[in-house]
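Q: What would this chain look like folded?
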Amino acid sequence: MALPHLPHRLLLRHLARRARARVAAALRQRRDAGRVLRLVSRPSRQCGRGGGALGAPLGGAGEAPARAEAPLVSVPRLADLVTLARPRQWTKNAVVFAAVVFAGRLGDARALGLAALTGLAFCLASSAAYAFNDVCDRADDRTHPSKRTRPVAAGRVGAGAALGAALVLAAGALALSGALAAPARAVLGCFLALNLLYSLGLKRVAILDVMAIAFGFVLRVEAGIEAIAAPESAWIVLCMFFVALFLGCGKRRAELADLPAAAPGARRPVLGAYSLGFLDALLALSATTAIVCYALYAVSVQANETFLLTVLPVVFGITRYLMLVLVQARGQDPDDLVTRDPALVAAIVAWAALCVAVLYGGLRLVPAARG
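A: My prediction, written as structure tokens:
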């Protein structure tokens, strides 16, 4: 606003006073607005801690963290319950058929039926173990880059529903085992008890964690033997133990090798007790012992000397897997590795074909030893 009748100095002073007044008014307005925002935001945070409906700031921007932390559903979907059971892991229970194969009873319908029933019971028992373990690990799994999508960790299946599913699966396994011999039922009960102990604490004890996993495979093989009352060989049982120990150590090594690139939540608590050098030594020890035990089984138990040829694909398969773990840093998913690596699949097929040809086809490429 021009004031021509005033001197220039007075005009400038007048304009400066007006400018200062406007700035002071703007500052007071900003300060008052800040007070209002603080009064609004404080109750929102307090309600948010209590989980009330008014906990989120205006506009719903604060709802996302609560849903990401523990999304809940009242009734689990069937697809999530199936995922909880992990049917893809049921292939591990195929080892119950080892007794049928090596006893030469593949043509025995009753033996095959009992072995299939045993395998189904162990599928339900292992699914019960997976569900219970997911409940125990749900807090750690939520920070894991891949395990956080599991039904319990993601909140799609509540802890109570998962425990209920585990109880139902375990009861189903025990019910199926009622048709088996008493020793086979006892072995299944030991399997459930072992997995319970594993979830409650054994998995956090170095060496015992992988030994518990390996002993679980021994129990599967033993249940198959008891189910059909097949002749028992200590060498094949020991071979199964050391093969499973080998696979477990390979998985631990792959997880430990991936730690530098993984998020902090991806680390198993027990991995802090291991080192790559120690796991490499365990891998070499278990691989060598497994090969020796299988060779001793082939020499001392099987009457047909041609069965010795089955040692060749066994040696190739174990050393191939060892190379994949040590050279290519693979092994976190043994099931995926065994079924997807062409060389390993070829070794398994060659081993199975030789076993069938020798045990059931009477193949003799090595002359019988003279007494």
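Residues 8-50 form the longest helix (43 residues).
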